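F.,

This is the one I mentioned.
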């Protein structure tokens, strides 16, 4: 490959990652309903043209990429802590999820809203966390019904945590542990 093309691609990729990081930062400061590509341009201090080129002039594309980027960072964090015990792995997922929620509730609420906004589009990020939890529940020996109950009770209700206190978030982790104890017995 031509060296100039390679250097140009590396520069483009570096700028793109910086825009995704700034996108997470922006969605940590304002509500999703107030976000736009123009707001991102103002927030980052780059031209609208640059923003539109990176996200195909689509706010949904931007949102999808920001959600995918932050999901992958979160997933890496919990996969690094996985062990051979599925119960501990499931608890680890929820502990890390709740740590992130405590650190940045607005971003987590915005990301939940973003998933809903993108739900019926081809831009919806793949549900890797859901797949990881389902796999760990299978390794634990959970029945299909137990998996459904667990996911309904603990995973799909995550967006309701917007106003949750630290005590309530910690209680949810304890409830996860109790449920898992009942499955593994």
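My design for it:
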């Amino acid at each position: 490959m031509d060296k100039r093309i390679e250097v140009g691609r590396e520069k483009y990729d570096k700028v793109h990652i910086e825009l995704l990081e700034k996108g997470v930062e922006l969605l940590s400061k304002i509500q999703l309903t107030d976000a736009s590509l123009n707001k991102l341009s103002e927030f980052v201090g780059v031209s609208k043209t640059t923003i539109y080129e990176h996200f195909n002039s689509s706010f949904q594309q931007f949102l999808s990429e920001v959600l995918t980027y932050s999901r992958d960072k979160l997933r890496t964090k919990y996969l690094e802590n996985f062990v051979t015990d599925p119960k501990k792995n499931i608890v680890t997922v929820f502990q890390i999820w709740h740590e992130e929620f405590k650190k940045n509730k607005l971003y987590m609420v915005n990301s939940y809203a973003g998933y809903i906004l993108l739900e019926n589009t081809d831009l919806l990020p793949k549900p890797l966390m859901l797949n990881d939890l389902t796999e760990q529940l299978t390794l634990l020996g959970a029945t299909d019904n137990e998996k459904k109950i667990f996911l309904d009770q603990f995973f799909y209700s995550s967006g309701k945590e917007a106003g949750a206190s630290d005590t309530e978030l910690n209680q949810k982790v304890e409830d996860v542990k109790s449920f898992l104890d009942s499955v593994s017995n």
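The radius of gyration is 19 Å.

Talk soon.
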